[in-house]
Automatic annotation (TrEMBL):
InterPro entries: MFS_trans_sf, POT_fam. It is a multi-pass membrane protein. This is Peptide transporter PTR2-like. The keyword Ubl conjugation does not apply. Keywords: Membrane, Transmembrane, Transmembrane helix. One of its GO terms (cellular component) is membrane. Its main location: membrane. It is found in: Membrane.
Amino acid sequence: MLAAAIVEIKRLQLAKELDLVDKPVAIPLSVLWQIPQYFLFGAAEVFTNVGQLEFFYDQSPDAMRSLCSALALLTTSLGNYLSSFMLTVVTYFTTQGGNPGWIPADNLNKGHLDYFFWLLAGLSILNMLVYIVSAKKYRKKKAS
């Protein structure tokens, strides 16, 4: 999310420099600027999914291994629903009072998508702190 926020800041700066903020046109910024964020996101997904499946398979009771593997996929779908809900909430609160909001539907150049990425980065840091506390409290299943 940090990489996405930085790319969005660069895109908005370029839109202002070229006086394209009020025009619904594409900003002349190479798509290659998105490589770092997609690389980081893809690597994070791989490590998370593999670790999550391994944890559920290794730490669950033998009779529940299939169910726990299915729960790993369920967390992904719940995360997608949560993302949609967060987007709706952010759009609702940032468009109050006639403001275009962080994520305007008609012209992204008038919005602040970077603020949304910073919000997601902050929530990710908070999530990491909760994970660290939970991981320290977790007691591993005894080997059978």
